[in-house]
Amino acid sequence: MNAPMTLNTADRTESPSHLALPTPADLRRELPVEPPLAERIAAQRQAIRDILEGRDDRLLVVVGPCSIHDPAAALAYAEHLVALNRRVEDRLLLVMRVYVEKPRTTVGWKGLAYDPHLDGSDDMAGGLTISRRLMRDIAALGLPVATELLQPMAAAYFDDLIAWAAIGARTTESQIHRELASGLEAAVGFKNATDGGIGVAIDAMRSAAHAHRHFAMDPHGGPVMRETAGNPHTHLVLRGGHAGPNYATDSVAASRRALEDAGLPARMLVDCSHANSAKDHRRQPEVLRDVLAQRLAGETGLVGVMLEGHLAEGKQPLVPGGLRYGVSITDACLGWEDTAALLEEAARQLRG
Ligand SMILES: O=C[C@H](O)[C@H](O)COP(=O)(O)O
Ligand SMILES: C=C(OP(=O)(O)O)C(=O)O
């Protein structure tokens, strides 16, 4: 790891409960995105938009760990994905989940950006730096990076690296997140609410498509009024809810109707994990196979899927010093071999 950067905190008030962080500009200076990488990310975003807008009939696949806790394991995962991509890229567009912030139902470890040392020390300056470096390394491998944007202030540290963003089930109803999405170049998936309601996600898509003026932070950490253009590249993410899954044909048809009634394009991505698999990673394949069957039967609104996978299957409790390599410390994930076999099977089916 590089030496921590020196922060210019001369004009900032610090106290034990207020520790200065680097500004987005500091971090972008330390870990710049050079023009060739910026062009590559722009092309990745365009490829995703082409799928969303029907110019490319490949399936968008957002796949990777539920959360990143070990950057070395995440890079190893990314390298596997790059190799797999060569075998499936004719039918699938692989995008890696690089989730460095985790929304918690109550409390728990909040992700690499918050607590990179996994010990409750909450070295957020280190967490932001490690997260940005990892996203840059993964993007440099040629893999589009996906993340959930949870803390709007944190987005400015990463948003130049992101090809696809999620607004999660717990924040889709938040105006602040809709404003954030309205200013992004990347396509954004809004998840249905944890209770299964899709109405909030549809409202979110309508709101994010609009121009907004909102309170924000400039790259130097100063408060600004930010004006956004509106993001027309949003879609619904079906992740199931408290009453059960919502990926089956009838739920998809109902979601399609609701989108069309709202005057929105029928674009849906199915999250094969979370409430669609009752958080049992072994059930993700049956969800994916159902989505593929619907696509092959003509449901063009199903533009993509999300899978939670890590190097090894399952999950483990966060016991500092006692972690198994490549195993999730948040939701249970498919292991690499199962994920690769599943995606090869999906590509084969889509080839017809
Ligand atoms: O995706 C991960 C989790 O489902 C989400 O962060 C909520 O986690 P929790 O219910 O364990 O707090
Ligand atoms: C937290 C996540 O999902 P959801 O918002 O659907 O719970 C996730 O995808 O990591």
What's the gist of this structure?
The protein has 352 residues and is an alpha/beta fold. Helices cover 36% and strands 15% of the residues. The model has no long low-confidence stretch (mean pLDDT 96).
Give structural notes.
The protein is an alpha/beta fold and 352 residues long. The chain has a single domain (24-325, 336-351), classed as Alpha-Beta Barrel (TIM Barrel), CATH 3.20.20. The protein contains 10 helices and 10 strands. It has helices at 24-30, 35-52, 71-88, 124-140, 152-155, 175-182, 199-209, 249-261, 284-296, 336-351; strands spanning 59-64, 92-97, 145-148, 164-167, 187-191, 212-217, 223-228, 234-238, 268-271, 302-308. Strands 1-2-3-4-5-8-9-10 form an 8-stranded parallel barrel, surrounded by 8 helices. A two-stranded antiparallel ribbon has the order 6-7. Helix 8 (249-261) links the parallel strand 8 and strand 9. Helix 3 runs parallel beside helix 10 (336-351) and helix 6 (175-182) crosses helix 7. It is globular and about 65 Å long. The model has no long low-confidence stretch (mean pLDDT 96). Residues 66, 102-105, 108, 274, 330-331 line the site of erythose-4-phosphate (E4P).
Furnish the topology, listing elements before pairings.
Layout (H helix, E strand, L loop, with lengths): L23 H7 L4 H18 L6 E6 L6 H18 L3 E6 L26 H17 L4 E4 L3 H4 L8 E4 L7 H8 L4 E5 L7 H11 L2 E6 L5 E6 L5 E5 L10 H13 L6 E4 L12 H13 L5 E7 L27 H16 L1
Parallel strand pairs: 1-2, 1-10, 2-3, 3-4, 4-5, 5-8, 8-9, 9-10
Antiparallel strand pairs: 6-7
Helix pairs in contact: 3-4, 3-10, 6-7, 9-10
The structure holds erythose-4-phosphate and phosphoenolpyruvate (PEP).
The site of phosphoenolpyruvate (PEP) has 11 residues, from loops.
